[in-house]
Amino acid sequence: MRGKFNKSSLIGWQFVLLPSALILLFSFYPMIQSFILSFESGKGNVSHFVGLGNYTRLFSDPMFRQALFNTLLYLVIQVPIMLILGLVIAHLLNSPKLKFKGFYRTAIFLPCVTALVSYSILFKSMFAVDGIFNQMLLNLHIISEPVAWLLDPVWARVVIILAITWRWTGYNMIFYLSAMQNVDPSVYEAASIDGASKFRQFVSITIPMLKPIILFTAIISTNGTLQLFDEVVNITNGGPGNSTMTISQYIYNLSFVYTPNFGYAATVSYAIVVIVAVLAVLQLKVGGEKK
Amino acid sequence: MKHLGAIGKHTFLIIASFVSLFPFAWMITGMTNSSSDIVKGKFSFGSEFMNNVNKLFDQADVATAFTNSFVIAIVSTLLTLILCSMAGYGFEVYRTKGTDRLFGLLMLSMMMPFAAIMIPLFKLFSTWGLLNSATAVILPGMTTAFMIFFFLQNTKSFPRELLQAGRVDGLNELKLFTHIYVPTMKPTYAAAAIITFMANWNNFLWPLIALQSPEKKTLPLVVSSLASSYNPDYGIIMVAIIITTIPTIVIFFLLQKQFVQGMLGSVK
């Protein structure tokens, strides 16, 4: 019996060995290398040990502060807006007698099939100074003269937030919708009989029932936003004057655009690692407590 | 009152659908207009379509970029399906304390930001002399903790009796996998294939770093470099964007069900 068990576990290892080795090689090994690199500085491949030098530089680096601020700003504003919007749309689509449900669902999900680069450039063209978005607003008399969306530090950030929300709301909505369809309708019937309003039902039944999936989407959205790169590079390329630059773009610039300093870039990258880890623990705590 | 609620709902959903669909309409009309008309916000069909197509094919080697993207996406998808399904199957069917620990460790890689590993990866591939090749793009992405997790989750609903029956029929352990597991799990493979293909087709940051010469570039890189020139020609960019988007839209409409299942499959 014991021999059989060992044989079976050996077969298991044969199935998992190669894929695991590849992940260790292409994720864990670079993670460790990056950590070692974060204590070195220099140009390109020539670098020397500087101890905590890069880390002290990090705290007094205005560009890093700007990139960190931008990234956290996108996170704090965009993720909640998108998740709430996704929840509301999923809730509306979940009403059993709603007409054109299939059309709405497909339409709102469709942005998810676009490449990040492609939709970013579409947004860039729509928000040109003489572009279609300004014209619409002018025709609706919301603005009296064109806004230079991408040339203004605040509006440029707004455009990036709008773009990301456009691309990902439908994605999150699908998760919520599928979770809502698993909620037993009799729960709502009972609540109706007790006189709970629709809004009340949404807040007191739907949201608590969906807590695990909301937590899941919050974590993946947070992770995605902290790594934001494609959109910013293609909509504003970080401008005007670094006002939209994210940490990922700063790391890319430090490594491949400015005079390459892989050591310092690695240090900056560990800032994201720390933030990702802290936020994940925080979200799991908040999400777990109220269960 | 009840009517009012329905009208409100539909108004909201119509606005949401309009906002979602508008950029698609914008790119479709855009490809028939000149760059100056697009920047001026012309939202109607023009007569520049063939002109834009010709200019695009003059300025950029779109056919090569399409082939590069396609080869990378297909090869990556095949390798991902083989490697990650093997691992997901192994971790679930032959579960031991040791493999569980390894699995937990691998899951940590989902939390690793790509920005933190891209520099050592770049150095690694440069040492191997593999930069600027499709191999460099394919290798790091072909095994992901996410896809292993996805297969493991789906393997939980795989009927184990089939394996026992196969053993009675004298199949060895590898054949159990290839002859019983793989055919039974076709829907899971289909969903995984769609998600993986899309991710690779649309990938930007790593190819941007790994591929330098023009003839190696993938579609997103070509689209991005067309748009980042000093005076971008939006007419040809719209055509390039459409070419990039068509395959994913076709896959979505043909395989909508598997597409959504693939997305949801990991959170069962």
Number of helices of chain B: 15
The residue fraction in helices of chain B comes out at: over 70%
The chain-level mean pLDDT of chain A equals: 88
- CATH top level class name of chain B: Mainly Alpha
> What is the CATH top level name of chain A?
Mainly Alpha
CATH topology of chain A: MetI-like fold
Low-confidence stretches of chain B: none
Which overall shape of chain A is indicated by the principal axes computed on the Cα atoms? globular
Q: Could you give me the name of the CATH homologous superfamily of chain B?
A: MetI-like
* Helix proportion of chain A: over 70%
Computed over alpha carbons, the radius of gyration of chain B is 23 Å
Give the oligomeric state: heterodimer
Question: What is the CA-CA span between the terminal residues of chain B?
Answer: 38 Å
CATH architecture of chain B: Orthogonal Bundle
Number of self-contained structural domains of chain B: 1
Spatially, the strands of the biggest sheet of chain A line up as 1-2
Task: Provide key terms for this protein.
heterodimer; A: 291 residues; mainly alpha; MetI-like fold; two-stranded antiparallel ribbon; 13 helices; 2 strands; globular; B: 268 residues
Describe the structure.
The complex is a heterodimer of chains A (291) and B (268). With 291 residues, chain A is mostly helical. Chain A has helices at 2-37, 53-59, 62-93, 101-109, 116-126, 132-139, 153-180, 185-193, 198-209, 211-226, 230-235, 247-257, 262-289, and strands at residues 40-41, 48-49. Chain A has a two-stranded antiparallel ribbon. Chain B is mainly α and 268 residues long. Chain B is built from 15 helices and no strands. In chain B, helix 3 crosses helix 14 (234-254). The mean pLDDT of chain B is 90. Chains A and B meet through helix 1, helix 3, helix 4, helix 5 and helix 6 of A and helix 1, helix 4, helix 5, helix 6 and helix 11 of B.
